[in-house]
Amino acid sequence: MSFERRLKRYAAYFRGWCQAFGEYDMEIVEENGITWLLGKEQVGLILPDRIRREVYRAVLGKKAAASRIAVSNARFQVAETGFGVSSDEAKNYMSAVLREFRHSPELHLFLTYHLTFPSGTRFVTLSRKPPLRIIYKEIEPMTIRIE
């Protein structure tokens, strides 16, 4: 059973600023170069250079409100670009995270980083909790479909 809801989006006040992703329970590196970070209340995607700019524009650009995001236990779809997870362990974990998202009154999208990854690495982060207001400003929301 799928449902749709508004997704609050955030942009940093200054280019390059991000808050830390925080603790995560699982890191999955897929064959297509995408790394997934799975935490209890958030999911982060590290994207390869070849698609990063396109996805950033689709989810965090000024015209992103026209784009749509769809998330399932095996796939994250942004506009025309999709990313999948293949391991059963990852799919089960994603199902658990999405169940939590279903009961969350708000969902938030922003960029984060983590100290254990190379400098400049940013994650597209979908979270149940909003980011720090001192770093981010809210921008126009968009729609997300969770399956």
Task: Report on the architecture of this protein.
- With 147 residues, the chain is of the alpha+beta class.
- It has one domain (3-146).
- The chain is 18% helix and 41% strand.
- It is built from 2 helices and 11 strands.
- β6 and β7 form a beta hairpin.
- The longest helix is centred in the middle third of the chain and has 15 residues, at 88-102.
- The mean pLDDT is 84.
Short key terms for the protein model shown above:
single chain; 147 residues; alpha+beta; eleven-stranded mixed beta sheet; 2 helices; 18% helix; globular
What is shown here, in short?
The protein has 147 residues and is an alpha+beta fold. The radius of gyration is 14 Å and the shape is globular. The chain has two helices and eleven strands; from the N terminus they run βββββαβββαβββ.
